[in-house]
Amino acid sequence: MTVRHGDGMVRTWINADLATMDPAHGRSYGALDHGADGRHAIRTTQGRIEAILPMRDWRPASGETVIDVAGRWVTPGLIDCHTHLVWGGDRAGEFEQRLAGTSYAEIAAAGGGIGSTVRATRAASEEELAQAAAARLAPLLAEGLTTVEIKSGYGLNLADELKQLRAARQVASLVPVRVTTTLLAAHAVPPDYAGRADDYISHVCDTIMPAAAEEGLAEAVDVFCEHLAFSPAQCERVFVRAHELGLPVKGHMEQLSNLGGSRLAAAHGALSVDHLEYLDAAGIEALADAGTSAVLLPGAFYFLREKQVPPVEGLRRAGVPMAVATDLNPGTSPFASLRLMANMACILFGLTVEEALAGITREAARALGLEGRRGVLAEGADADLAVWSVPHPNFLIYEPLAPRLWQRVIGGEIVS
């Protein structure tokens, strides 16, 4: 199913309690007055929110389709701003091996790890990758997802990186969801460039990135700055080339060590830096000064049994926006539940419930460069909504696996 993102019809959701997630309202969750005497109507047309009205001021317009939500809560549609959704094969056997005490290095030496995913992804067709990715989205759609970011990074050559990005674009024609794509060719050094990371970065900058830009396949460029991936100097080469091609940047930073990647990314105006377990005070200050978002990925932290938590309190004090995402991938975060990740961000990292819900709506949109357009209920924003059968928005995080979604709306069209 292709989402048309607005079919021109006027639709209005009435008798709604609204958690707008818009801080301009000055209330928790951006909630407007609610209860029987304070409910609201949301009128949409041309894919956007045209008006938010108290019910006492609403009058049906000619030709308007009316949906009575009968006091249910409406939030912005959920946004997963960091996934690796398109891949071939699986890594379930490695999960068992790690639990039995086998190290990642030993698994990789035996042909496992990211190398096994690269081989399987290269062997799969574009159509096979798109179909598998669409199937993986089903649980996320069922919990209110309306936008998903999908990275490449398992092809690690020209043909297969572009194949991954094309497959990601296909997903939106298979299931009703908005897709943004990110080129992550600088994810790992491929086997054919073993010991030649600089040469591979040259290939990324001189060949893969221009081709992806020419075909319009990527909205952003990502890098993995880590001792087992790429150095800050190598990542900076990618950032510079991305700017030349007119593409914004982001980065996997400070997950396993502190190489100063976040400061580097902030200096290049990055949309976001993600993971951040080893982020230091200088990195926090750089993010705050640059307006770069921090994306927290508790699924990978949990799955890898890490101990160092991201410096949430420091980020909070500095006013750095904090998003939350699944990091959905076969090796380190096989979790297709954004609400569960938000719950984990509260329990493992110390976010408040409101921060967590903002992290999968408003702040996730900001991390994708969509601030004000998605992730909030506001006049002029995209009409991407989720309608919930809950007594309060905090239930979405409190009981993350409960099937509370009543309706999902993209561009003013009901899609589930």
Task: Give structural attributes.
19% strand, 416 residues, eight-stranded mixed sheet, eight-stranded parallel sheet, globular, alpha/beta, 36% helix
Oligomer: single chain
Which parts are unreliable, with pLDDT below 50 for 5 consecutive residues or more?
none
* Helix and strand composition category: alpha/beta
Q: What characterizes the major β-sheet? A: 8 strands, mixed
Number of helices: 15
Number of beta-strand segments? 16
User: Which radius of gyration do the C-alpha atoms yield?
Assistant: 21 Å
Helix content: 25-40%
Q: How much beta, percentage-wise? A: 15-25%
Shape estimate? globular
Terminal CA distance = 12 Å
Mean pLDDT over the full residue set: 95
Compile the SSE list and pairings.
Blueprint: E1 11-18, E2 40-45, E3 48-54, E4 65-68, E5 73-76, E6 78-80, H1 92-99, H2 104-109, H3 114-123, H4 126-142, E7 145-151, H5 158-174, E8 178-186, H6 197-214, E9 220-224, H7 232-244, E10 249-253, H8 261-267, E11 272-275, H9 281-290, E12 293-296, H10 298-303, H11 312-318, E13 322-324, H12 338-349, H13 353-359, H14 362-367, E14 385-388, H15 395-398, E15 405-410, E16 413-414
Parallel strand pairs: 1-4, 1-5, 6-7, 7-8, 8-9, 9-10, 10-11, 11-12, 12-13
Antiparallel strand pairs: 1-2, 2-3, 5-14, 14-15, 15-16
